[in-house]
Amino acid sequence: MPTIPHARRALAVLTCLVVAGTGTAACSGSDGPGDTVDAFLQGWRKSDLSKVGFVTAAGAKIAATDVTTQLKALTGDLAPNLTKLEPAGKATESGKNATEPINLAWTLPGGATWAYQSTVRLTKQSSDGWQVVWEPAIVHTKLTEGDSLKVRAKAADRGDILDAAGKPLVTPTPVVTIGISPEKMTDQAKLLKDLNAAFKTIGVTLDEKDLTTRLKNSDPTAFVDVVTLRRPDYDKVRTKVRTLPGTVFREENRELAPTRAFARALLGTVDAATREDLDANPGTLTQGDMVGHGGLQERYDTQLRGTAAQTVVIALKTPADDVDETQIFSTDPVAGKSIKTTLDVNTQKAADAAVAPEKNASALVAIKISDSTILAVSNGPDGGAVNTALTGQVPPGSTFKMVSTLGLLDKKAVTLDGKVDCPATVKVSGREFKNSHEMKLGQVPFRTDFAKSCNTAFVNVSGKLGADGLQAAGTALGLGTKWDLGVDAFSGKLSPADTPTELAAATFGQGATAVSPLAMAGATAAVARGQFKQPKLVLDPAPAAALPDGAKLADTSIQPLKTMMREVVTKGTGDALQKVPGGPVSGKTGTAEFADGSEETHSWFIGWQGDIAFAVMVQKGGLGSEAAVPIVNRFLTTLNK
């Protein structure tokens, strides 16, 4: 019988389906083999082959449900990703037999397409009309009974996160993952106690509650991760943990920074894909892929990860219960692209070492004054779980006096030696403001009020500053403006200063003003430089909307302000930094109240030495001189060794 056009096939197939609906057995396109192929392909796509008749290569009938089951087994990993299934030409008849080519295409994880042509054989040896000769070769010419298509991926070389010198900050590093095999445990409580004791010797705390839950929900033969240690740390506890009943070990390389704490919250980590990762990236990630979590590793994961090589294999289970694999298609990996940052390894290490002894959460940001590049982003303790250094939103306390003083100088409302009264307390619209430790200086030069950090003196001149002066000074130093660093960052929020009491509070860094350590480091660098330049962190790929440079700051304001910030160290609240190595330090301490009715305060210090500006904040650290200044001392001492 001659073939018919595809336009007529649809009508023939429809007629066939109607007949089949009446109970007639599997009408397989009586008008021609092409109709049967169309019905077969349509049924394959819908996982319903009930309207197609099948025979084996030997001529025996085979149920459509069995064919559906075999199709699912044969297509294996590829089953959900069939993107093309269509005739590749007209059916060719030879007596009671026919063939028709078909096109198949599959989308592999990562987006690559595997396309090829196969052939459907048909026969009309009985009164049932044209029937498909079912054989695995329909799926692929090399498939035979018992085979299955599997996808094997080989990860591409991951791109590096580079420092300012273009050298990798994160590199493959030998690690040992310590795990527990539930079936090998003899005493879970004792095992966890012994592991905790061993880990404490290297400063690692075991989350027993989480581990207990995971052990309870794991298969007896599972490898339940406990902790992954760099090889030197593992070697310190090896003899303590190796012989514990239930422990198992896995050695591998992980993408790691120079130290555990090194810019940890900023860089993020590279770990095996979680269930959440797999669910969020269907068709892109597979079990065992390494994925960036947090920080730059997550933000730029797609670029850093590149595209894995994909290999399609025919898997056949042998009588010995092994699996033989034959490769039939592969793609080449596309290496990930590196991310270049402005971080300086020595400065970052000095920052991490400076915050390490502080038990409270802390943050330190260091910026190169000459070009506004960020040299270090450190969060403590132990690298920090949250990148407070860049995204924190806290009151700046008296460090904001640097900003309000710039505004006062711009308005010519104060001078270095002009006297401003510093009483113990002062009231504005019925609200009382006071100094730490009930300090009162009386009528003294404004430079002394600044060096000693007198709140009431700033309250007394707040009316001269005004809301407009505060806003202008803050904006001139980049606070509250829109930054684009290539990573999440908070540039600050300026108080509206819309009432006398709010203006008074905002003048010395309280009220509705909020900043991050980065925001204050950027403002400090602007004062030291005499012009605001948006801080830079990610250089390549370059941020699309970096803020243009600000206007030059008035020298008549900047020079007196620099003098006052130097005197904070020579004769004020930051005098503990007088003898720090590396040259003169200028800066401002800060003590920030953050909750009404609480005596707890955040501790701040902002300043610069040479070409490096910095900001340090310690949550609940007390006075600026009590927690932040010692961190600055350690930072500059280490940096200038």
UniProtKB/TrEMBL annotation:
Penicillin-binding protein dimerisation domain ranges (all copies): 155-313
Coiled-coil blocks: none
BP GO terms, sorted: cell division
Domain Penicillin-binding protein transpeptidase: 365-636
GTP-binding among keywords: no
Region forming the signal peptide: 1-25
Entry keywords, A to Z: Cell cycle, Cell division, Membrane, Signal
Main location: membrane
Compartments, record wording: Membrane
Similarity-based family: Belongs to the transpeptidase family.
Name of the protein described by the UniProt record: Cell division protein FtsI
Organism taxonomic ancestry: Bacteria, Bacillati, Actinomycetota, Actinomycetes, Micromonosporales
